[in-house]
Each structure stands twice: as C-alpha cells, then as structure tokens.
Write a structure and sequence with these properties.
heterodimer; A: mainly beta; 1 helix; 48% strand; globular; B: 444 residues; 8-stranded antiparallel barrel
C-alpha cells in the first residue's frame, strides 16, 4: 500500500509519487453502476508507451469488489471472473481475435505492455510500483468490455461495460482548477 | 486458485453513513491544475492543460515537440520550422458544444497524399468527457468523436457502426503538416496514416490505420455559425467552398413538397377521370365525300350542325388508303359571326410482306380535337390532298370530347417546381461526390 503525501521537495524521488493528472475521481468518491452503489477506495496508475490511465478499486454494496478504469474520458466498470475456465496464453492473442468470456463474445481491441506506476488507498493485492504486465483490452456488443492481465504470477480476466460518465452519478469528486 | 492477499476490505454497508467517505489511509488529493515548465530547448514557458492525458506538447516558442510524460521533458522532435500558422481558434479557448464545455488544447494541420489539399483539426478537452476534435476543411466544420467500437465492413463499399451504415467516400494517405499545443499520442510532423472515409450525411465515419494501430472516429457536420457562437470567434470564418462529404443535403427536407405534389397530381387526375366518365359525346354530323385530284370542285362542305354546349369538338377522318396517304385541311365556320378555326388532319396506311411475315403501319382513321367550341351553328369546309387520283372519305363531327390538353398543362406546371428541385439536388450531390474516389457518379 502506497500512501501518497502532498508533493514535498524532500520526499521527491524517494517515493513512487504518482504523476499528477486531471482526473476528477478521487479515493472516497461514490457512484452508481446500474442498481448498485459503490465507493472508490483505492487506485492504481498504469502506464504504457503511449499514455497512462487510472484503475480505481471500488467496493459495491452487494459485497462485490470491482474496478473503474478511467482513460481519456472513457469509463469502464469490470469485475474479475474466476470461473476456472482456461484462459489464453500470454502471447497467443492478436488484435481482432475473438474470445468467449463471462458468457459473452469479445474481440481483441489492443494489446499493451504496461507498468504499474504506483498506487494509493486500499487494494485487493500488493501493487508494487514497477510491476510489469501485458494488458489486453477486448470489446463486445452493446458496450461490453473485457480485459486480460498477463503477469509473471498469473493471468486475470475482468468483464464489464463501458459506462458514460453521467451514468456513474459520481459524487465526492475532486476539485479541478478552472473547471 | 489461492486467495489473493487482501489488505483491509470493508463494504459500503459497513461504513458509517454519518462520517464523510474519506478513507483514513489516503489524504484528500489536491486540486488538479494545469502545469507549466520551461522548454529544455529554448527556455520558453510550456503549458500542459490535460495533465496526465497529454503525452506530447509543442513548445510555442521554438516548435519542439516535448515528451509531456517525461519529468525531464525530453524533446521528441522538431515541429515544422518553416511554417507558422495562426489557428482560427487560439489554444486555451473554451466553448460549449453538445452540452459540454471544451477547451482547445491542440491544433494540427494535415495534408492529403497529393500535398495540395490540407485541413485543420482542433483537439478539444474536458476532464470528465475526455477528447473530441473540431475539424475545418474548405470552410466546412465537423464535430468529431473518437469511437471505440470497431466498424464492420458491409456489402458494396459500405461500413456500419452503432446501427448506421455509411458509404465509402475516399481512401488516401494523410500526413501531419503542422502541430501546436498538446496531444494524447507522440505526434510528429510527417506522421502518416491511411485514412478511409465513409459518409452518411450529416455524419462521416473515418478509419485511420498505420502499422501499429487502427483508430475510428465519427464526425458530425456543424454550421460555421455554430462554431462561431460556441467559441465566440470574432475573426472571419473561412468561407465554405463546394459541398463537404458529410454536408446534409439542402434538398432532402423536401419530402413535404413531394407529398403535396403527389396529392395535387392525384386530385387533378381524379377530376380528369370524372370528366371523362361524365362527358357524353354526341355525333353532330357525318358526311362522306368523293375527292378527285383534278376535280372542278376542290372543296367540300358539311351541312350545318348545332353545338349545344361548350366542349371539345372532335373531327374524325376515315379514308380507305392503302400504301398511301390522304390529308384534309379544313375550317370550322361559325355561322353566327363567320369566325373560322383552321385545322389539318391526315391518315396514312402501309402494309406488306417481308421475311418476318406481314406488317402494317399507320391507320385509315385519324382525329383532331378543336377545344372549347362555344354553342352555336357551324359547318366544316374541307379540302383534300393526296398523291392518288381519287379517294372517298368520310368526316364525323363529335361533340363532348373530354380534353386532355388542360390536364397536361396543369400537370406540367405543377411538376415544374419539384422537377427543378430534383435537378438542384442532383447538382448538389454531384458536387459532393466530385471530391470522392467516385467522381463522375452521384448519390441518388
């Protein structure tokens, strides 16, 4: 768990301070996904060669936990699928390949080599800065979304949906200077 | 699968509803703000507005493209030094479009494969909505949304996405010619992609592809006035030239016109049909004559007959011509005032045998209608002509023939405007498609 301090000249360089961004979401924000309410309790910042995005760890009021991915104005809520089904190998998939996951059909959208820049708040696992993985994003019909995370330790599958910002009905958002 | 090591986990239901929802382990984040730094190349001030999202930013002073993610702000490339373009909408301008406030954070000019034809793109940013583009080409504007749905290719050069089908307009190579501000990828002057545009006015679907990825976007046509008022532009807007690929047709909204035309045409036809049904024709006179080429009497006259109501008067000629022709020229003489109306009428009939069998052409009967003849006493004066020596013929005068000429006239007048609009629409669509890969055809 990485606790983030406000940027302090002495600490700069010593800790894996997450780079600043214009995200309106912050730990403590609350939102809705369909009938469920959720609270944002943690964050991972994921980086790749052509950008970075936030993965917000959320607790839902049906007892489940899931992720709110936030990338360039796009928001995806997904939940890990642990149904024991065999998952593809790390180098097997290419853009355009099909995949059945969580009872739905998806197509591979892109494959990125990513690194975790750091984290804050509460998380379901250790997320050391520098953890490398291969992230595969898939899209399905009607806004269905899935992602596969391949790392040295294991392969994880998440299935969910693209959600427009307004539908998330977020409260407790961060103040944005000038906005 | 071993259980994942959990840190602390609490559910929302367990949280005390009274205390503010701020977890004690993470302090509240500071207000987000744009950041500034010094250009490593020239020392000029560089600003990044979409912090965390923009990954390259152009120094406004020396046109170096800088890595916005790199804390050392490494220079990635040099943007075009020989050009200097002043964007119509300056960087930092904010405007409201589609219910959201956008800030212009980037500007780019791109050029087609020939190098002759360029256009400008403004990158719009909003912290919760992400990115959009404002595209200006030949004075025409589009509001462009990046798509994250993969379009499907359809039959006959079409592509479809989100339930709509688009027609292929053009495919070409597109290169970046000039950049200002910031972008969400590592932009470089000279970057080239293959672009495919598909249209369904007012929308245009664009698919751009290079060796590493494929991106999709949907552009919606905007009127210059919309852009001007959204971004409070005081400078002169570029004048629109020609027809843009996704420009909505000025002549599509005329389905109302077609409806009215159809109704009037139907009513007109019905009136004509009724008048045909209810007109009672009455034979006023039947006369037979023997015509001889060299006869002393060159003209004939029918006895007087009475026209009882204003109508079309039909003159029917019958002559047993065979491989020959016979014509009469005549006058309808009004016995009351001596007014005459001239007419000409002829018959011709030919027949024979050839390799296909027997054939025939023409008729031994002919007729002419004299319109709107008022009631009164009349007779016909007739003269015949033919190549033959002699011919017997009969002339029948019939009252009450319904006229088609009025119907045809009114119908033509009624159709003039829709026909004109149809022609204008054709011209418009031809202009639209003249810039496509299909110049020479048109969209109908």
């Amino acid at each position: 768990m990485v606790v983030r301090h406000d940027l302090n000249v002495e600490d700069f360089g010593k800790m894996a301070t997450l780079p600043a961004d214009m995200s309106p979401i912050q730990v403590g924000a609350m939102g809705r996904f369909g009938n469920l309410g959720f609270e944002v309790v943690g964050r991972l910042k994921i980086d790749w060669s052509d950008g970075s995005w936030n993965e917000w760890y959320c607790l839902f009021n049906d007892g489940r936990d899931g992720w709110l991915a936030e990338a360039q104005g796009e928001y995806m809520i997904s939940f890990q699928i642990r149904d024991g089904k065999k998952l593809p190998g790390r180098g097997e998939l290419r853009a355009g390949n099909p995949l059945n996951a969580g009872g739905k059909l998806f197509t591979v959208k892109d494959i990125k080599e990513v690194v975790c820049l750091g984290s804050e708040g509460e998380l379901p696992m250790k997320a050391p800065a520098g953890r490398k993985s291969t992230s595969v994003d898939l899209i399905g019909d009607a806004g269905d979304f899935a992602t596969l995370d391949f790392s040295e330790e294991e392969t994880r599958l998440y299935v969910g949906k693209y959600v427009p910002f307004e539908q998330l009905k977020l409260t407790g958002l961060r103040e944005l200077d000038g906005w | 699968m071993p259980p994942l090591p959990w840190a602390t986990k609490k559910t929302v239901a367990e949280a005390d509803p009274v205390t503010p929802a701020v977890t004690p382990s993470a302090p509240p984040r500071t207000k987000a703000a744009a950041l500034s730094f010094q250009c490593p190349s020239c020392g000029g001030s560089v600003q990044v507005r979409a912090v965390g999202s923009s990954i390259s930013v152009v120094c406004g002073s020396c046109a170096s493209v800088i890595d916005a993610k790199d804390p050392n702000h490494a220079v990635l490339s040099k943007a075009a030094v020989n050009m200097r373009i002043q964007p119509l909408i300056p960087l930092g301008t904010r405007g409201k479009l589609r219910g959201t406030l956008w800030e212009v954070i980037g500007f780019m000019q791109r050029v087609d494969g020939s190098g002759q034809y360029n256009w400008r793109e403004y990158l719009l940013f909003n912290p919760t909505q992400g990115f959009r583009w404002l595209l200006e080409s030949q004075g025409h504007w589009s509001y462009v949304i990046p798509l994250h749905e993969r379009p499907k290719k359809g039959s006959g050069n079409t592509a479809s996405v989100l339930g709509k089908s688009y027609r292929h307009f053009l495919t070409g190579q597109v290169s970046v010619q000039y950049v200002l501000g910031e972008f969400y990828w590592r932009v470089k002057v000279g970057d080239s992609v293959q672009a495919m545009d598909y249209v369904n006015p007012p929308e245009v679907l664009s698919i751009e592809r290079d060796k590493s990825e494929e991106t999709y976007s949907l552009g919606e046509y905007l009127l210059p006035q919309e852009v001007r008022s959204a971004f409070s532009i005081t400078a002169n807007m570029p004048a629109p030239i020609g027809v843009a690929p996704n420009q909505p047709s000025a002549f599509d909204g005329n389905s109302d016109l077609r409806g009215y035309w159809g109704a009037f045409a139907a009513i007109l036809f019905l009136i004509q049909l009724l008048s045909l049904m209810f007109s009672s024709s009455k034979v006023l006179d039947v006369s037979s004559f023997n015509w001889e080429k060299n006869a002393a009497t060159a003209s004939f006259s029918t006895p007087s007959f009475e026209v009882t109501k204003t109508s079309g008067l039909q003159i029917r000629l019958q002559a047993p011509v065979s491989n020959n022709w016979f014509e009469i020229s005549g006058d309808l003489v009004n016995e009351a005032d001596g007014d005459t109306e001239e007419f000409e009428l002829g018959v011709e009939y030919y027949s024979g045998y050839d390799s296909d069998g027997s054939w025939s052409e023409g008729s031994q009967q002919g007729s002419k209608v004299l319109s709107s003849i008022a009631p009164g006493k009349y007779h016909l004066n007739l003269q015949g002509s033919s190549e033959m020596e002699r011919m017997s013929f009969s002339v029948e005068t019939v009252q009450g023939t319904a006229l088609w000429s009025n119907f045809v006239l009114i119908f033509s007048l009624l159709s003039a405007y829709p026909a004109f609009m149809l022609w204008r629409r054709h011209v418009f669509e031809t202009a639209r498609w003249s810039g496509s890969d299909y110049a020479g055809g048109d969209d109908e």
